[in-house]
Amino acid sequence: MFYMREEYGNAGSRTHEFGLKAKRAVELARKQVAQVVDAEPSEVIFTSGATESNNLALLGLAAAAEAQGRRHIISSPMEHKAVLEPLEQLRLRGFDVELLPADERGWIDPRDLATALRPDTSLVSLMHVNNETGVKQPLLEYAQVLEGHSAFFHTDSAQGFGKEFAPLVSKRIDLISISGHKIYGPKGVGALVARRRGFDRIPLAPLVFGGGQEWGIRPGTLAVPLVAGLGTAAQISMRDEEVRAAGNLEHFNFAAKALSSIGGVVNGDPNSLVGLSMNVSLPGADSEAVMLAMKGVVAISNGSACTSQDYKPSHVLTSMGMSSDRINGAIRVSWSHLTPAVDWEKVRASVSVLLSCFAE
User: Of 43, 196, 312, 323, which has fewest CB within 10 angstroms of its CB?
Assistant: First the structure.
């Protein structure tokens, strides 16, 4: 609230003290975000969130790729719609977009990436942590495959930034999309980390025009209060990493025990979960009915928030080869270190009654 009420300067106004104070707050936040991934502060571009960051990374590289005659892009069918839909726009522009097959673990195999790479591959975009299953992708293995190839490597890290730290420090990951509210910062702010190669900036073209802010890549007046909040949240995520992980693991263990006791089957490799969510199929159940039964007990979903208004079978689970029955009975459970204790026995009992009704 300080930058809403007390220091309301514009970070782009450098001729007076109000603007300078705002600029200092922005540059501090830039440093705080950069520290999480061991980047330079000047490599952090503030955006409205991971959706904008993804669009900037994918569409912003299109002109450079076209100029070089490198129209091949590699990605995954499990990506968030904020990646898949920009990729479709690129396909309409004549790009060859190749989606690598997912397996039942919820993984993209690094060997498939190695096989798919071509001399004209300009971009590889593979997410850090899947937003529906919570499965971590092997980013460091992808980075190893890409060593020696000039393709840019982008990862949508909305679900992983500030939670799983080690992979994102790899200098082979060129572009990292970040969302503020996923690390308990403000909604409506995010960042794109765009690492230099040597002294050269990544050749991103702006999607919006009308100013020189953020090195001319993302014009517009920065939302100083939101940016400052993102920076603080990033700093706290590093400070409290171990405490948060321990609290999240406790929630995970209780949820896994309760749901497995009634026949729940985890979708995706249970050994690769980030520990903040899980996707579980309940045998013979209908996920919509389960959500209604749990109303007032726990808040669960059967997909991502971005698609909840128009429910369709999960494209993530479909791409993993799940049967329609398993997809129809899939629920997504997520939590944080701030989540109060859940009466999992009550959850188990309520769902057990519901499952018995389905069985009759």
Answer: 312
